[in-house]
Design brief:
The structure is a single chain. With about 325 residues, this protein is α/β, with parallel strands linked by helices. It has two domains: about 170 residues, P-loop containing nucleotide triphosphate hydrolases (Rossmann fold), CATH 3.40.50; about 60 residues, Alpha-Beta Plaits, CATH 3.30.70. About 40% of the residues lie in helices and about 25% in strands. It contains twelve helices and 14 strands. A six-stranded mixed β-sheet has the order 6-7-8-3-9-10, with helices on both faces. The chain is elongated and about 75 Å long. The structure holds adenosine-5'-triphosphate. Adenosine-5'-triphosphate binds next to helix 1.
Length: about 325
């Protein structure tokens, strides 16, 4: 049974943008389904922020078409603006206001009215664990609290599509996990998330689909699993109960690397179901019993490197 196909929240064809003679987006196509998380990855300077700024109506574009939440980006920018939220590198938090004042100000901008605005602010302060800090100036907030306030401010307008530009850069692991949880809850409620991140682990955790941008073009689009299967390095590890089993399997499977001490074989594989089924069929036909099977797929760092020739930013940082 297949579920009804969801609608596009973001549909982009042939999007182009240059700054002077520098082409940053050289004909980008994207289709992001409603209620999913889409992550745009790419090396520094690849054009991720430019894409977010264009799709969120902050800057214009030179060619192509885009529909956001059903509205044409060029023809109906106000309708697009009303349907989206943007948060990330360019934070909307005003340091001279308290958390609560920031939220009430946002509610005013959305014409919610005093009572409704206050109610919404209180609800968001609670949801983002900021009630205790509500009357403190935002300038005293930690990085994690600030990001939460920023996202809470974005949610005042009840956006259907949210652009998150590097939402967890610089956050400690606990704050990052809290942000991930919030993002998951938003998606579960039907919101569409467009995420840029320099942490491939974050894209892997959150994204239903990922696109990799390099030198103005999308060099790959797919689910995290599809992208990982597309690069070499994947293998299946088989462990056997005794040396006889290991020997028999090595003979049956041919080109594999073996570890006699651990009684394991490492079989190159994309880790997909058809490949696994074929492998198990061969073993069964040869009447060989396997004690344990594990699939090892390359991680997104391997994908990123294979596609762009650059290590990911987060990897580079630890070098
Ligand atoms: N307003 C601008 N004027 C001129 N060049 C710009 C402008 N904005 C961005 N660029 C250039 O466009 C390219 C893409 O920048 P962008 O910030 O979109 O990249 P990014 O992928 O988000 O990078 P990062 O991960 O470093 O944030 C860069 O070479 C940048 O210098």
């Amino acid at each position: 049974m297949t579920s009804a196909p969801s609608r596009s929240a973001i549909a982009v064809t042939g999007l182009r943008k240059s700054f002077g003679d520098k082409v940053v987006l050289d004909g980008i196509d994207l289709d992001v389904r409603e209620g999913t998380t889409f992550s745009l990855l790419g090396p520094n300077g690849a054009g991720k922020t430019t894409a977010v700024r264009i799709l969120s109506t902050l800057i214009g574009f030179d060619g192509g078409q885009a529909r956001i939440a059903g509205h044409d980006l060029a023809e109906e920018p106000d309708a697009v603006r009303a349907a989206i939220g943007v948060t990330g590198q360019f934070s909307a938090v005003d340091d001279l206001l308290t958390g609560e004042e920031n939220l009430v100000l946002m509610a005013d901008l959305h014409h919610l009215g005093r009572a409704e605005g206050g109610r919404r602010a209180a609800e968001l302060l609670d949801r983002f664990d900021l009630t205790e800090a509500a009357t403190k100036l935002a300038s005293t907030y930690s990085g994690g609290m600030r990001r939460r306030l920023d996202l809470a401010m974005t949610l005042v307008g009840d956006p259907r599509v949210i652009f998150l530009d590097e939402p967890t850069t610089g956050l400690d692991p606990r704050s990052r996990r809290m942000m991930w949880q919030t993002i998951r809850e938003l998606v579960a409620s039907g919101v569409t998330i467009f995420l840029t991140t320099q942490y491939l682990e974050e894209a892997d955790e959150l994204a239903d689909r990922i696109a990799v941008l390099d030198r103005g073009k999308l060099v790959a689009v797919g689910t995290p699993e599809e992208l990982k299967r597309g690069v070499p390095g994947g293998h299946v590890r088989l462990r056997f109960g005794d040396a006889a089993g290991l020997d028999a399997a090595a003979r049956a499977l041919g080109d594999v690397s073996r570890d006699d001490e651990a009684l394991t074989l490492q079989v190159p594989s994309d880790g997909g179901v058809p490949a696994l089924r074929a492998l198990l069929d061969r073993l069964e036909r040869a009447a060989i019993e396997v004690d344990e099977l594990s699939v090892h797929t390359p991680d997104l760092d391997d994908v990123f490197f294979a596609l762009t020739g650059h290590p990911s930013a987060a990897k580079e940082a630890v070098r």
